[in-house]
User: Which sequence fits this backbone?
């Protein structure tokens, strides 16, 4: 059986373990190695309390992804109202690989909030099927099966890294080296 070349690097772990921090360190490592594109999900805090999340591009553009205590008719995930339109406006153009060549796509994360956008879900599937090299964070456990997460985990060209307190620093080098081996 032919071994598949890795193209999808999945990072998972408990909430708050440092998945986004790990992706940020890997991206910083890779900046001189390849072209990067994509986004991070950034926790927004006020008075030491988390009040929501923003989506932030590699270039530093920022949009509100979710906030708590919002009036209006936005979809909700837990206590957060999700700004799907803002997310799509910022994230979807980044995932269009035909617009410019990118060697590594960063997607932090594929979770319940982001998956309120069916257009996002389809864009991620297309990236993977077109063999775009991608570093993606996914939830460790979900109450309900998430189709896109299951697809990513079972994709033959993917590898899953589970982050914990013991390995999160060493994974920066391990994952960076694995990605470099996959870049043409």
Assistant:
């Amino acid at each position: 059986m032919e071994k598949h070349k890795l193209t999808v690097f999945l990072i998972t772990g408990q909430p708050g373990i440092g998945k986004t921090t790990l992706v940020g360190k890997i991206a910083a490592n890779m900046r001189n190695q390849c072209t990067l594109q994509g986004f991070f999900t950034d926790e927004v805090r006020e008075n030491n309390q988390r009040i929501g999340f923003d989506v932030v591009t590699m270039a530093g553009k920022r949009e509100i992804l979710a906030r708590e205590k919002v009036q209006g008719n936005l979809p909700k995930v837990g206590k957060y109202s999700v700004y799907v339109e803002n997310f799509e406006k910022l994230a979807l153009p980044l995932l269009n690989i035909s617009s410019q060549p990118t060697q590594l796509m960063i997607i932090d994360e594929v979770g319940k909030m982001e998956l309120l956008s069916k257009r996002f879900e389809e864009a991620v599937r297309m990236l993977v099927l077109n063999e775009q090299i991608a570093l993606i964070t996914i939830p460790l456990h979900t109450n309900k099966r998430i189709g896109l997460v299951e697809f990513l985990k079972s994709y033959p060209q993917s590898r899953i890294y589970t982050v914990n307190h013991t390995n999160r620093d060493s994974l920066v080098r391990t994952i960076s080296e694995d990605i470099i081996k996959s870049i043409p």
Summary: Helices lie at 19-30, 84-94, 118-129, 147-154, 170-182.
